Amino acid sequence: MRYVFIVNPAAGKKNPYNSVFPLIQEYFRQNGLECVTHITNQPKQATELTRQQAAKGDAVRVFAVGGDGTLSEVAAGAVGMENVEVGVIPCGSGNDYVKTFGEISDFLSPEKQLRAKSRWVDMIESEGHFSINLCSIGLDAKVGYEMVKFKNIPFLSGPAAYNLAVAKVLAGKLGEHLKITIDGGEVYEGDYLFALAGSGRYYGGGYCGAPQSLPDDGLLDFILIKKPGITRIPPLIKIYKAGGHLESPLFRDILTFRRGKRMDVEAKKPTITNFDGECHVIDRVYFQVVPKAVRFIVP
What we know:
The chain is of the alpha+beta class. It is 26% helix and 38% strand.
């Protein structure tokens, strides 16, 4: 088994190569193990590096040392590759994907990571772009877009940056006119706060947007939230963050929950769309499940 670590020095508040990775290097040294390390310096580089490692054909474990974005890039490079197992050493601002599986501390342990087994998990494909956690269009994507700016403020945590982004977005225009089609059949149209497609459960530094999502069931959870009156929003946010929106009576008249394989969305005007934290302004998008896309290491 080969071990490869792809380190994103821009992840989190402290360069992971200096803060987290030395512990991994020391563990490997003490146990007589070898590893290859790559440090990224541009977007999508982690995907290409993973593809290069996968192309060698032998058994390899590729660990993303960074946040959810780094993990998403590494996983995208391993789609469909049976010889590759993907892991993550979570040291980003949110570290949300691993919350679906257990404690972050387990993923930070080199010993537990190397002893752990992998399992096949699904991914989300959209026009050739692969995401491992959650994608969305509308308000929460706008929040993710604004969060990037707040993350650059020194000493501001990921959850705090997300909450500030929420406040800024809520102070602006709310709602997008969307036409949403699920699995080519059910059609929903109207003014929505956002529409979400989840394989994982958490995003935005701990918001449980898709509380019943299973990362390996071959389906995506689709959460559609219609635009409510502005005075209703503050209590809704608290319930949504805790993952209680699917059962809450306060969401009954504005929430649609479906499980399926594909969601197509058309926006009346171009709006921000989120792919595992990577944001783009578009007016048409689809989110489609890729069953058993990658082997994910779960300590």
